[in-house]
Specification:
- It is found in: Cytoplasm.
- This protein is an alpha+beta fold.
- Helices cover about 30% and strands about 20% of the residues.
- It folds into 2 domains: about 100 residues, Roll (Ubiquitin-like (UB roll)); about 350 residues, 2-Layer Sandwich (Creatine Kinase, Chain A, domain 2), CATH 3.30.590.10.
- Strands 7, 10, 11, 12, 13, 14, 15, 16, 17 and 18 form a 10-stranded mixed beta sheet that branches. Strands 1, 2, 3, 4, 5 and 6 form a 6-stranded mixed beta sheet that branches. It has a two-stranded antiparallel sheet with strand order 8-9.
- α3 runs parallel beside α9.
- The longest helix has 21 residues.
Length: about 475
């Protein structure tokens, strides 16, 4: 697509506003809307100015001027706005035209560029499976004298006795009983189908959708893989469309990893592979799960660096409420074919050579996708470069249900960090693999760790409601 193509699209679709978007450190999209009548060829050459000091984790107030440089390949028409709006993702530059090294999208692009310099391959492909909940009601508050949350769903197991429905219609989903039931148990077929329609309308190739395991409206939609940065762009689009479609139905969607106690959380299982041109490099017929030695070493890099990696792929305190045994959470740092109890799984059902891939099951959707995918690629490339063999390091393969192993056998298996602070400690101790090729910088990592430690502290110093149940009558 050329700039002229975009200008022609603005006229053809009677676009009133052009929404220039970028992504901050947290992974949330930010935007500035410009009247379409003011968007000219020079807009794409000079960019759109914004205040970087107002974005957490970006710039100080003394160096606040920054520029969004539009990426015209990302343009799509917003399906929700009353006034016709064209959305375009942007890269962040400094006023002197330099690429901003704290821009997550720039880091993703540098990771792709670094891959091409290694001689390993030309392209890395990524495909996230980002799960979410659709609730009917959500309430929460935290203050000096109160702290609570409450969510509700017409599907929830706790509503079998509710009268407010005008006659309870039953068919509630039991705890851990929500995997792919049909209607009337699954009440959200139409809302997921509408999400998929809009995702396809805005350029995503949809593979499937279904109800997920947990009660209270857990769902998953899978879209087609793409290159690293494009997939991160697609994931932001995916979350935007899921959230706003839910809102149109009078509901609310959340990608929070663990919104409910006692049932499965929402992960973001990430599939990845490396190609050289059109040739898949992870496939070798007859190898373990038909994996090449390159793929095995890629897995070795992921698992070896996993404690540090998890600070980026699971960057919230809530992430570690999901990463506990017993809820299909991938807490074991091992690899296996088809085994969902392992942190790294190799899908083996209906897989072709080009579909041969590695699935890292630990991440969740609080991750900034540009940073998470870039960090995964850098860990995998380090494994390939150093020929890190996960078999020699005791990372598997484990082809049995790890949850059912004896405590003695489990003691030999490394687990994920137990808290966000532990993961950040690991990142501080192990980040050289991220610095290769200048993909991540020391400044970025230091700033990121400080930013996330602030989040962890804000949670740790607050009084938890369950502490009243435990200690009020001490």
């Amino acid at each position: 697509m050329s700039v002229q193509n975009v200008l022609d699209l603005i006229k053809e679709k009677n676009i009133e506003w052009v929404d220039f978007r970028f992504v901050g450190l947290s992974g949330k999209a930010q935007h500035i809307s410009v009247p379409a009548s003011e968007v000219e060829e020079e807009t794409f050459e000079n960019g759109v100015a914004f205040d970087g000091s107002s974005i957490h984790g970006f710039r100080g107030i003394e160096e606040s001027d920054m520029v969004m440089m539009p990426d015209i390949e990302t343009a799509y028409v917003d399906p929700f706005t009353a006034h016709a709006t064209l959305v375009i993702m942007c890269n962040i530059h400094t006023p002197d035209g330099e690429r901003y090294d704290r821009d997550p999208r720039a880091i993703a692009q540098k990771a792709e560029e670094f891959l091409q310099t290694t001689g390993v391959g030309t392209t890395a492909y990524f495909a996230p499976e980002s799960e979410f909940f659709i609730f009917d009601d959500v309430r929460y508050e935290t203050g000096m004298n109160k702290s609570f949350f409450e969510v509700d769903s017409e599907e929830a197991a706790w509503n079998t006795g509710r009268k407010e429905e005008g006659g309870n219609l039953g068919n509630k989903i039991p705890v851990k009983g929500g995997y792919v039931p049909v209607a009337p148990v699954d009440t959200q077929q139409d809302i997921r189908s509408e999400m998929c329609r809009l995702l396809a309308e805005t350029g995503l190739r949809i593979e499937r959708h279904h109800h997920e395991v947990a009660t209270a409206g857990q769902a998953e939609i899978n879209f087609r893989f793409d290159t690293l940065t494009k997939t991160a762009d697609n994931l932001l689009k995916y979350k935007y469309i899921v959230a706003n479609t839910a809102r149109q139905y009078g509901k609310v969607a959340t990608f929070m990893p663990k919104p409910l106690f006692g049932d499965n959380g929402s992960g973001m299982h990430v599939h990845s592979s490396i190609f050289n041109g059109d040739t898949p490099l992870f496939y070798e017929k007859g190898g373990y799960a038909n994996l090449s030695e390159m793929a095995i070493h890629y897995i070795g890099g992921i698992l070896y660096h996993a404690p540090a990696l998890i600070a980026i792929t699971n960057p919230s305190t809530n992430s570690f409420k999901r990463l506990v045994p017993g809820y299909e959470a991938p807490v074991n740092l091992v690899f296996s074919k088809g085994n969902r109890s392992a942190a790294v799984r190799i899908p083996i059902a209906a897989v072709t050579p080009k579909g041969c891939r590695v699935e890292f099951r630990t991440p969740d959707s609080t991750a900034n996708p540009y940073l998470a995918f870039a960090a995964m690629l850098m860990a995998g490339l380090d494994g390939i470069k150093k020929k890190i063999d996960p078999r020699a390091l005791g990372y598997g393969p484990f082809d049995k249900n790890i949850y059912e192993m004896s405590d003695e056998d489990k003691a030999e298996i490394r687990s994920v960090p137990g808290t966000l602070d532990e993961a950040l400690d690991a990142l501080e101790a192990d980040n050289d693999f991220l610095l290769e090729g200048g993909v991540f910088t020391k400044d970025f990592i230091d700033n990121y760790v400080d930013f996330k430690r602030g989040e962890a502290k804000s949670v740790s110093i607050r009084i938890h409601p369950h502490e009243y149940a435990l200690y009020f009558d001490c």
